[in-house]
Amino acid sequence: MKLLYVFRTVLFLSLIFTAIASHAQQNEDLLNLLIKKNVLTQQEADSIRADQALKAQAKKDKEKDNQHSITIGSKALQISGLLQERYQGFEQTTVNNAFDLHRIRLIVSGNISDDWSYYTQTELGGTGVKLVDAYTAFKVADYLKFTAGQFKIPFSLESLQPDAQLEFIDRSQVVEALAGRSKDVIGNSQARDIGVQVSGSFAKVDDNYLFDYSFGVFNGAGYDVTTDNNNRKDYGGRLSIHPIKNLIVSGDFYNGLANYGTPAKNQTRNREGVDARYVIGGLSLQAEYDKGTDGTIKRDGLFGQVAYFVIPKKLQLAAKWDTYDPNKIITTDRANIYTYGVNYFINNWAKFTVDYLDRHEETTTQIKNNIFEAQLQLAF
């Protein structure tokens, strides 16, 4: 008798769940009937009603989110951004201390398909709105990806590192001068240009690729421009090796013809560099050497830095030695900067950084031009 009762109960419950999935009113009638026949208790019936109500609401929410086939945060459309508010205190009396909006970035990206993606980044601060990145990429396989549009040129590890992930507020002198940034002969192009690139990774060992490569052809006129300023196209490439886990060693080059000088004319703008980065636990080490030729002027520089989390994922101390020679012929123009920094990570998207730049120039009279910097970063 007990077995028969159990069988009957299971059968009735199966009928209930089938009915619930198809007819809401019939569900309610069946539940009331089974309560009346003492097959279900009122508590059991209420539990079934609550469970079905949650499932129905979840279904409605999903349908609402997908009514336009796009949801924020989905693979099709992702919105993120970066805000860096900075204060600079100058030892040099002729320069005013000031707050500024170092970077205000809005990023819109997503996937058109599993292999086809797009990425756009706009700078909203400074003197006006600037289109920083605007490209699409198609991945054939891990060893072959095509990118077209406006994006970072494949030169300099520190230049290629995202702004939000730098250990210091400022990039090094040689990177600012030779990677298409603030002190380059072509002006500040944010290390970007318009062109096409092929890249990928190959030679997999223990689930990690041994080599990464990038090779691109570019206008050479910089970013956010409507046309090239000469008929020649520039080209550059980068090859990285991962000999052991968390170590990357790279070499890169860039050959181009740019329109610059006074008066402006087409002149060579060539670059070569090597760099390395190693991370073990809370310790990170990084070094880079770059050299360039602008017309007849040869320049070079290098830096080495170390950073360590004294409190894991929370408090990081950092130090950097940075040297740059803007003209190899002149023997008294080299500049050395010793930077000491502290990074405090408030949470996953907020960071507070303090840097002190101890500057030394190869001049007969040392200029008092050290800088104190503080920056609040919000990256979402």
The biggest beta sheet reads:
16 strands, antiparallel, barrel
H-E order:
HHHEEEEEHHEEEEEEEEEEEE
Helix content: 10-25%
**Cα radius of gyration in angstroms:** 30 Å
Task: Sum up the overall morphology in one term.
Answer: elongated
In total, the number of strands is 17
| Content-based structural category | alpha+beta
- Name of the level-1 CATH class of the largest domain: Mainly Beta
Structure description:
With 380 residues, the protein is of the alpha+beta class. The chain has five helices and 17 strands. The chain folds into two domains: 2-65, no CATH class; 78-379, Beta Barrel (Porin). Helix content is 18%, strand content 49%. Strands 1-2-3-4-5-6-7-8-9-11-12-13-14-15-16-17 form a 16-stranded antiparallel barrel. The longest helix is centred in the N-terminal third of the chain and has 24 residues, at 42-65. The model is unreliable at 1-7, 9-13, 15-22 and 65-69 (pLDDT under 50).
Q: Can you give keywords for this protein?
A:
disordered N terminus, Porin, single chain, about 50% strand, about 375 residues, alpha+beta, 17 strands, 16-stranded antiparallel beta barrel
